[in-house]
Amino acid sequence: MAGIKIKYTKTERARQKKILKVSERMLPLFEAMERSLMATINTISERIEQIRLQIEKNRKASEPWVAVLSDSWVNIHEFISVNEIITKPIDVAGVRVQQYESVDFNVKPINDDTPLWVDDAIKLMQEQLQLLAEIKCLDEQIELLEEELLDVRARVKLFENRRIPNAKMAIRKIGQKLQDDERLTIATAKVVKSSKKEGVGL
After folding, report:
1. Which residues touch 144 (CB under 8 Å, ≥6 apart)?
2. Angle formed by the axes of helices 164-201 and 10-61, to 10°?
3. What sign does the CA torsion over 189, 193, 194, 198 have?
4. Which is more confident, 88 or 116?
5. Cα distance between residue 74 and residue 72, in whole Å
6. Rounded-to-integer distance, Cα 5 and Cα 1, Å
7. C-alpha span between 138 and 32 (Å, rounded)
8. How many C-alpha atoms does 125 have within 13 Å on its Cβ side?
9. Model confidence over 80-99: pLDDT tens digits?
10. Taking the CA atoms of the chain, what radius of gyration do you get in angstroms?
11. Alpha helix stretches (DSSP H) within the chain
């Protein structure tokens, strides 16, 4: 309340009580949003880790013929490229994000003189690129969710550290001032009444 001027009126007290009521109702909602966002971010992070493990598993499985690929005249990148990463908008924990759907590939036809292992290499590259595309989408989801989390945490702190304490203090101070004014009014009235009686007695 430092630096905030309080109006010591019944109207202001009613206004502060309304602020307090709304703030105490909103705080649990923002706290629930905070928990939901944190849980969602953790779930997405776990999914990213699972995908990375799968990518590494695929890499190890391809090791027996990777040496052949490196020594071959065939450039596997000439056979496959990404046209588009297909996503769709969804709401996650109240935040609009893009969900990974698939990858649209441009795959070049394989000639009869192309080594047989090229088919397997193309399939593996497709899977790896799909997994990497999904990670990209999930990373972007986390980025948006973390931005929302920062905003929600700021709101929680606002209610916890400012709005609720300030409203409570204002209500208490206004109540004390009104009580003091009422006691002063009563005391003044008694003095006036006593003075009138003494005047009549004289």
Report:
1. 95, 96, 97
2. 170
3. positive
4. 88
5. 5
6. 8
7. 22
8. 20
9. 899 999 999 999 988 999 99
10. 35
11. 10-61, 63-71, 117-158, 164-201
If you write DSSP's letter for every residue of 36-52 in order, what string do you get? Answer: HHHHHHHHHHHHHHHHH
Sequence letter at residue 181 = D
Give residue for tokens 């990404």: 82
Distance of CA 201 to the CA centre of its chain: 77
DSSP category for residue 9: S
- Looking at residue 103, its pLDDT comes to 96
Q: Which region, left, alpha or beta, applies to residue 92 given φ > 0 means left and ψ of -120 to 50 means alpha?
A: beta
Mean pLDDT of the chain: 87
Q: Is 174 exposed, middle or buried, given 0-12, 13-18 or 19+ CB atoms closer than 10 A? A: buried
Owner of token pair 């202001």: 12
At 105 the pLDDT is 94
Percentage of the chain surpassing pLDDT 90? 61
For residue 185, the model assigns a pLDDT of: 80
